[in-house]
Amino acid sequence: FEETKAQHSPFTSMAPVAPRSGDVIFASVERVNAELFTLTYGAIVRQLITDLEEVEEVNKQLDQMGYNIGIRLIDEFLAKSNVSRCVDFKETAEVIAKVGFKMFLGVTASVTNWDAEGTCCSLILEDNPLVDFVELPETCQGLYYCNILSGVVRGALEMVSMKTEVTWLRDMLRGDDAFELQVKLLKQVPEEYPYKDDE
């Protein structure tokens, strides 16, 4: 409360506000009970499996749902985090891992496996609240249960002018030792403004 009060006081200077950490934001936002969230997501995945029957179609639908969430979530992220424009894709990946994941999921990711060009990396989650209470049956072995996360990352980055490809490399539900998302920058789209600056 004191921090907020100080920022909005008319008597304080207009110095730039420092970016807030994911921990601070996560502690300050209202959120639903973690178990309820996890079980609700599980029910959505189960219903998609029932409706679509094909696991690959479920993967696509989860990714599309995540994408639709990501393009809307970016506004809330930018407003609450005070993060300014990242200088490059490497900084962007760090912000996603340390602030974005913490803000919305309550966990942080590590950023590793950079390619030489600095356009492809891995986000590794050792903890993932989406998979609490989850065990995939034999009939769902091709399912990327957390594919909604890849869509969220892709959608959010597209809204800040970065076209990416986001794929799962490792999945603990498939017996791997971590959750690993590969994020590859395909194209950085320059922002276009509908007006010209006066000369």
TrEMBL record:
InterPro entries listed in its UniProt record: Bet3, NO_sig/Golgi_transp_ligand-bd, TRAPP_component
CDD domains: TRAPPC3_bet3 (cd14942)
Keyword annotations: Endoplasmic reticulum, ER-Golgi transport, Golgi apparatus, Transport
Membrane spanning stretches: none
BP GO annotations: Golgi vesicle transport
Name of a matching Pfam family: TRAPP
Keyword tRNA processing: no
Location, primary (coarse class): endoplasmic reticulum
Annotated localization: Endoplasmic reticulum; Golgi apparatus, cis-Golgi network
Top-level taxon of the source organism: Eukaryota
Gene Ontology cellular component list: endoplasmic reticulum; Golgi apparatus; TRAPP complex
Keyword Oxidoreductase: no
Record-stated family: Belongs to the TRAPP small subunits family. BET3 subfamily.
Name of the molecule in the record: Trafficking protein particle complex subunit
The organism of origin for this protein: Escallonia herrerae
Organism classification: Eukaryota, Viridiplantae, Streptophyta, Embryophyta, Tracheophyta
